[in-house]
Amino acid sequence: MTSDLRLHASEYRALALMYAAQGLPSGLAFYALGALIRQGGHGVEDVGLIGLAFLPWALKFLWAAPIDNACARWGHGRVVGMMQALIVLATLALIPFPPGPQLHAALAGVLLLNTLSATQDIATNAYAVTRLQGRAAGPANAIQVAAFITGMLMGGGGLLMVIGHIGWAAGMAGLAALLAVLYLPLMLDRRWLAAPAASAGSPVVSPAEAPATPARLRDLRRHADLGWALLLALVFKFSSTAVETLVQPWLVDRPLDLAQIGSLQTVRLIATALGGVVLGIPLVRRLGNRRAVLASGGLATLLLGTAWGLDAAGVSEMHWLALAFGIEAMAAGALYVAIWALFMNWASPERPGTDYTAMQCCESLANAVAAGAIGGLGARWDYGTAFAAAWGAGVVVLALMALAVARLQVTREAAS
After folding, report:
1. What's the fold here for domain 2-197+217-407?
2. Which of 11, 96, 193, 230 is buried most deeply by CB count within 10 Å?
3. 179: nearest Cα among 92, 83, 77, 84
């Protein structure tokens, strides 16, 4: 029993470290780059270019099956370690390319960085789904959300504050150092790679004993409810991503400086992680997968109008902005945990990384479209009109979510 508890603890710790490391490049792309582009003298329409950074997260399903098979053959530890080393090198390569004077080079570097991070995420997903389906899906996805958001917090708002004080080059060097430090515990303590708790009394499976049948992307079609799963993954975060993207130049034009924007992003991300833990886990355990998604989705949609309300009221005081965005973010965090607990229990154990990753790709594809579209709308319309349009789209999204959730086939429910 003691060895099982230690194994579970090492699994959760490994998940937290891996997802936090993957969140750092995402935070740079999605929560810092927009403000840096705008502050560097570029127009609001250029902020829409950060949608390119969503593409690796949207397209990683194309190489998910080979990564799944590599994990089965060589082990999750080797695959994650190789990707983490490449991520550190790619971060160092960004040092000479600040997004103000070197916008396109910076975008290319951030795109490469997120491609590597998205590839590592496939291996992390495979590890999580293989070991933590069933009732463990709720806590596992709360760890995923909290750790990934912690990484985004440091790579987004935290990095903005650092860059505001010491500049782009030093900020990128510090980011690379942090990425290296996060991997050290995984390298030094290998208990997270021991046999899963359910078969802890059995010998550890070696790479040579990997499954004979490789994972294949086309096997997704074995899910009879695949279309509904794809719809849910595509729509659930579309409107909130549009709002979050437009909020960055909106804050610059209030006007707030980078340190203040970074502080707000930090508050928002902490609140998202907190909402995932204190709201998301209880909702999943008490209501089950489907009802937890609908309950948290309804609350998140209601609060999606926060940015529109703040703009209409002309609010620019930091304490009111932090309070309003913090409350909105808690609901978003609860929804995120509920959604990914649902997809973890929906994924096939035969293709853990491929199934789960395909759903994440749909989310990222929708994020890329939303980020690109809202930049154009923000340039053509005023901020208030664009925020209102995104809020209205959120109501449509909620209706589509309700249709999809009712038709999903989840064999391993997360409720107690």
Report:
1. Growth Hormone; Chain: A; (1.20.1250)
2. 11
3. 84
